[in-house]
């Protein structure tokens, strides 16, 4: 069980770092370009900003072990959207391979959670 938790911790932190980096990059270095890109794909206004905030804030929350399942579920949906709307036509190699593995990691974390070194408080069992 300890090995499984250690593996989930590594997956949670690495996935969080990747999403935090991508979200921060959008927010700090190219939100205009990201918004234009999303708009050219027919996405509603504000979608790029929502994705950037979810990636940045969600990445930090994942690293800290807060709302892991919820954040990971949102990440999986973002990756599915990226694959379907943009990357699919590029194929697996040089296209959606990173998005696919990030989606798989996010689905895994959404299904299992990750408790090791998480800030989320565990519910204490009451003994009567």
Automatic annotation (TrEMBL):
Q: From the record, give the transmembrane residue ranges.
A: 47-64, 71-88, 100-118
Give the location in the cell.
Cell membrane
Keywords recorded for this protein, A-Z? Cell membrane, Membrane, Transmembrane, Transmembrane helix
One Gene Ontology CC term in the entry: plasma membrane
Q: Is Cytoplasm one of the keywords?
A: no
How does the UniProt record describe the way this protein sits in the membrane?
A: Multi-pass membrane protein
InterPro entries given in the database record: DoxX, DoxX-like_oxidoreductase
Q: Does the keyword Ubl conjugation apply?
A: no
**Of which family is this protein a member?**
Belongs to the DoxX family.
* PANTHER family, alphabetized: INNER MEMBRANE PROTEIN YPHA-RELATED, OXIDOREDUCTASE CATD-RELATED
- Name of the molecule in the record: Uncharacterized membrane protein YphA, DoxX/SURF4 family
């Amino acid at each position: 069980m300890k090995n499984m938790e250690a593996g989930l911790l590594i997956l949670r932190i690495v996935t969080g770092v990747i999403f935090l980096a991508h979200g921060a990059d959008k927010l700090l270095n190219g939100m205009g370009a990201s918004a234009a890109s999303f708009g050219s794909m027919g996405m509603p206004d504000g979608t790029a900003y929502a994705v950037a905030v979810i990636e940045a804030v969600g990445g930090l929350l994942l690293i800290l072990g807060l709302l892991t399942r919820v954040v990971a579920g949102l990440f999986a949906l973002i990756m599915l959207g990226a694959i379907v709307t943009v990357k699919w036509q590029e194929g697996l190699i040089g296209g959606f391979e990173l998005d696919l593995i990030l989606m798989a990691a996010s689905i895994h974390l959404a299904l299992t959670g990750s408790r090791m070194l998480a800030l989320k408080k565990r519910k204490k069992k009451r003994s009567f």
